[in-house]
Amino acid sequence: MLSLKFLTPFRIIFAISFILAGCTQSADQAGQQQNTTPPNIIFMIGDGMGFEYISAYRYAMSEPGAGTLAPTPFDDLLLGAATTYPDDDTWVTDSAASATALATGVKSYNGAIGIDANKHPQQNMMERARSQGWYTGAISTVHVNHATPASFFTHHPSRKMYEAIADSLATPLQPGVWRFDVLLGGGYRYFSRDDKNWLPELQQQGMTVITEFDQLTTTTTTPVLGLFAAEALPAAIDDQPRLASMTQTALRLLTAKQQQQQQPFALMVEGSQIDWCGHANDIACAVHEMKDFAQALDVVLAYQKEHPNTLIVITADHSTGGLTLGQGGEYAWYSQKVMGITASLEVMTRELLELPRNQWREYLQPRLNLELTEEEWHRIAAVEVPAEAKGRDRQKAIRSAIVPIISSHTRTGWTTSGHTAVDVPVMAIGPGSEAFRGYQDNTDIGKALLKLIR
Ligand code: MG
Ligand code: ZN
Fold first, then answer.
1. Of these residues, 55, 95, 131, 344, which one is catalytic?
2. φ, ψ for residue 139, nearest 5 deg
3. What pTM does this model have?
């Protein structure tokens, strides 16, 4: 009997083809043997990435009127759609409840991190992976203790317990067993606080801690905690794209682990700020975050080609903003105008607050690149920032003057600054991907993934 235990995935497929070619086994038997090596799982979550965001990205990458669309890495992967509603009477989920559903297969209330509606901790994907001897990792473009990554590793009654979540991430599951091999994103200030600085302690216990983005390429040891910003990383439109390089590093490190011991890995990759741009009703910001996510998907697809025993599943936790491509009765969406915008509203409004009003037009013109009317310029210059407004709320006042102007020039629609209850895309490729076909609930995705971890 041919032992498959110590063969790499490629060799197993080769061996099975060889056996089948000799017709000595039924397809069923061969299937069972292939099943003896579960695939690596790369679970990609576009936070807030409803179908409309994929459409926006596709059109923004294409030339209007050319008659063809630019190819995107999403094109060949769509298998179905998923409902996202939480365990209450609202239909509209937040990222915590939805990530809990995706990571544990159990519905919960908005705000819940890895626990059910009765506050009972539910085993998550990464804990299950660890219990089976798998390697684990996660990547986020916001703080690693934010709702989505937190739900894959920890259990807390509220997503707002940022410090407690950071403490959980920094605490081994059991002595010597970390929750992750690779954890990359932002959130430095939650691990290095006045009341507790985890970083020297973690390093003393053998963890590699990196805080400079450049260190990604030179890191060779795990476990590694990479915290590249005090909180979230900069938005892709304002800075270099980062998700693809973090993904590349995570895959390199996890593959190296695999060469020591033939165990699969589970990696969660989050395009975290698609949602944040949606909350800000910032279409240019959203399209650039989609591009960042698509570039990470390119990296993952290339990896899967080299390592075919890898399952890739892509979905969103919900959609955000009620985005529509087309607005105000006109049959058009001006993707090129969207792509002409060069900064996020977050950065523009922050910087405007530092400038006298008579310089606002000069500042905004080369960033918006839109032909504003005098009336529109006047509306922006006359915006009232309430005297009592503090911090972000001051930016919000300016943003609410600029958003309708960008929206009418580009014909982009938004109905809410929050989330919506629409179904989200489900895409998958690789061994086991058939489980994700059709119409399903987000908990079904979580359950199917947990089943594969054995
Ligand atoms: Mg998130
Ligand atoms: Zn959100």
1. 95
2. -135, 135
3. 0.92
